[in-house]
Design goal:
9 helices; alpha+beta; D-amino Acid Aminotransferase, Chain A, domain 1; globular; 24% strand; four-stranded antiparallel β-sheet; six-stranded antiparallel β-sheet; 2 domains; 296 residues; single chain
Length: 296
């Protein structure tokens, strides 16, 4: 179907786009891959664009005074710090604002929002109450540091700030939302069948690490309820541009796990796959994100 926004109009209003990627988090390599994929789409669109592979020094960001396409994963690019830097300098950027990013980077704070909205999420605590359970770092993404624990002897010691979550043995589902013409739109829901025990780092970024099924085989009620709840979360947290919400479905119930304010945009990432199923190519997604940023 393609983007509903005029590519030529947007190109005419944006003199230059700087794709910001890299950073200092464990997700640096994924961020660079996302950034290069976005840059390729911008070049295909004929837009004046360049990439900055950032090393975490905020002084370097002073060189950006045009549209910044933020493709940073993890802190400090996804925790609101970079967004606040640009807000203070009136530099336009893509994605959610600093306040929204501060919420979504924190898995516990996000789960508290789920509870507030009466949306199902697995129970969690600072100590495991039953097995199996899932240990998750409180901050960060790409499933780095996540592990399934089957017994007390496997707990071990961890220096990470994390929590233990009830293990839901269901189907991995991810819901991507993209602002199209400024309207938050749920893209076809995607089911993930990882080769390993769960959707870990290798499953996410290896070419054959998992099988993606889109649209996910859901009945009308399941799909409509998930879409409704996902949009509720997206709007309540005040996300912008795009987001990806991950969860598990079991016996017709969807358990929300986390919200990703800057989803991966690598060639194997989930959001681009859902966008393709909707009829949007990478160039269309990029145009919509720029359009959303222009309307901030």
């Amino acid at each position: 179907m393609g983007s509903t926004n005029s590519r030529e109009t947007i190109k005419g209003k944006i003199s230059k786009v700087v794709v910001l990627c890299g950073g200092t988090s464990p997700e640096r390599d994924v961020s660079i891959s996302s950034g290069k994929n976005v840059l390729k789409a911008l070049k295909n669109l004929g837009m004046n664009s360049e990439i900055m592979i950032w090393n975490g020094d905020f002084k370097e960001l002073d060189a950006i005074n045009s549209m910044c396409f933020i493709m940073l994963h993890g802190s400090p690019g996804e925790d609101g710090s970079v967004q606040r830097f640009f807000e203070e300098r009136n530099v336009p950027y893509t994605g959610s604002d600093s306040k929204s990013c501060e919420i979504t980077i924190d898995k516990i704070k996000t789960k508290e929002y789920f509870q507030k909205l009466k949306i199902k999420t697995p129970k969690w605590s600072s100590d495991p109450s039953s097995f199996p359970c899932v240990f998750k770092p409180r901050f960060g993404g790409s499933s780095i540091g996540v592990r399934i624990i089957f017994s007390e002897t496997e707990i071990g010691r961890s220096s990470e700030d994390g929590f233990y979550e009830d293990y839901i043995d269901g189907r991995e589902i991810t819901v991507s939302i993209l602002d199209i013409d400024g309207i938050p739109t749920v893209l076809p829901i995607l089911e993930i069948i990882p080769k390993g025990k769960f959707y870990d780092y290798e499953s996410k970024y290896s070419p054959d690490g998992s099988k993606l099924i889109t649209p996910a085989p859901l009945n009308f009620w399941e799909r409509s309820e998930i879409e409704k709840a996902a949009l509720k979360v997206y709007k309540e947290i005040n996300c912008r541009g795009f987001a990806r919400i991950d969860g598990i479905i079991l016996n017709g119930e969807f358990y929300f796990l986390e919200v990703n304010a800057i989803p991966g945009m690598t060639p194997t990432s989930d959001l681009p796959a859902s966008a393709r199923a909707f009829g949007l190519e990478m160039e269309d997604v990029v145009i919509e994100l720029l359009y959303s940023a222009m309307r901030r």
